[in-house]
TrEMBL record:
<protein>
    <submittedName>
        <fullName>Alpha/beta fold hydrolase</fullName>
    </submittedName>
</protein>
<keyword id="KW-0732">Signal</keyword>
<dbReference type="InterPro" id="IPR029058">
    <property type="entry name" value="AB_hydrolase_fold"/>
</dbReference>
<dbReference type="GO" id="GO:0016787">
    <property type="term" value="F:hydrolase activity"/>
</dbReference>
<feature type="signal peptide">
    <location>
        <begin position="1"/>
        <end position="18"/>
    </location>
</feature>
<dbReference type="InterPro" id="IPR010315">
    <property type="entry name" value="DUF915_hydro-like"/>
</dbReference>
<dbReference type="Pfam" id="PF06028">
    <property type="entry name" value="DUF915"/>
</dbReference>
<keyword id="KW-0378">Hydrolase</keyword>
Length: 287
């Protein structure tokens, strides 16, 4: 009888231990699932629409210039890469892919075959792309330009505004764009943001002369890089050039903001590889 009771005691103890182990396993499983839940919550925080975002590379740019950023956004379900448009030197388009018209924040990457041509030709090519998209039933787009791509995009706006035969620009972002060329200046960033540039390159004067063409309800975001506390540039473009149009556009009435990134990842050609820049762009476009 004692043996039977003792056996029952050991069996009860074993079942109790198994039960505890099972509880711990469930707790671990729950903990492992929580990051996925957070990711899902972050996805839901984004506004999804069928408005495409058009990415314009800088001087000498290639498919890699915005390729990494678009891929990172795609991996995070923030966008869906749907179209690659290559503009030939004669203005003809080679189009790969098709817009689904789904609410997936689609991306359109634009490449210039003559990737070292001048900004006036690039402006015309941007117009050609936006006219093509309008013909495809795209009413509006977001526009993101790095370096000379930002320069040409703003030149498009100051030259044409929002023409009826082209997709309307919904939001505009420039990344490290030399809006006042590479003109040296001793003006502080604070003065430039408050009053604009005193030393004006011809490019900036063109912007001033065409500012009335820019819709004053167009939201604009300027991104700039600063290598370190002693260097007021991203290694290529001075801060007071990347932010030169802030005062001009603000006085025009545009909702405008800017952000300065600091460190090695804020180097000119690394700005579009910087995950902090990724997040700032995603917040401005889709949050």
């Amino acid at each position: 009888m004692k043996k039977i009771i003792l056996s029952l005691f050991f069996m009860t103890a074993i079942f109790a231990l198994i039960g505890c182990g099972s509880g711990e396993s469930k707790q671990t499983e729950k903990t492992e699932k929580s990051p996925a839940a957070a990711t899902s919550k972050e996805k839901n925080a984004l506004t999804k629409s069928a408005v495409p975002t058009v990415f314009i590379h800088g001087y000498g740019g290639t498919v890699n210039s915005f390729g990494g950023m678009i891929q990172r956004f795609s991996n995070e379900w923030k966008t869906k890469k749907e179209m690659l448009i290559t503009v030939q030197a004669d203005g003809t388009l080679t189009v790969d892919g098709q817009l689904s018209k789904e609410k997936s924040n689609p991306s359109v990457q634009v490449l210039f075959a003559a990737n070292k041509d001048n900004e006036w030709n690039q402006t015309e090519w941007i117009y050609t792309v936006l006219k093509y998209l309008k013909q495809q039933g795209v009413a509006q787009v977001n526009l993101v330009g790095h370096s000379m791509g930002g320069v040409s995009s703003l030149r498009y706006l100051t030259t044409y505004g929002q023409p009826s035969d082209a997709s309307k620009i919904n939001k505009f972002i420039s990344i490290g764009a030399p809006f006042n060329d590479f003109t040296e200046s001793s003006e502080s960033i604070e003065d430039v943001l408050k009053s604009g540039r005193e030393t004006k390159a011809s490019r900036y004067v063109d912007y001033e002369n065409g500012i009335s063409n820019v819709p004053n309800d167009l939201p604009i975001f300027l991104v700039a890089g600063k290598l370190d506390e002693k260097t007021d540039s991203d290694g290529t473009v001075p801060l007071n050039s990347a932010l030169a149009t802030y005062s001009l556009l603000k006085d025009h009435g545009n909702p405008i903001s800017y952000q300065i990134f600091t460190g090695s990842n804020a180097q000119h050609s690394q700005l579009h590889e910087n995950t902090g820049v990724d997040q700032a762009i995603a917040n401005f476009l889709w949050k």
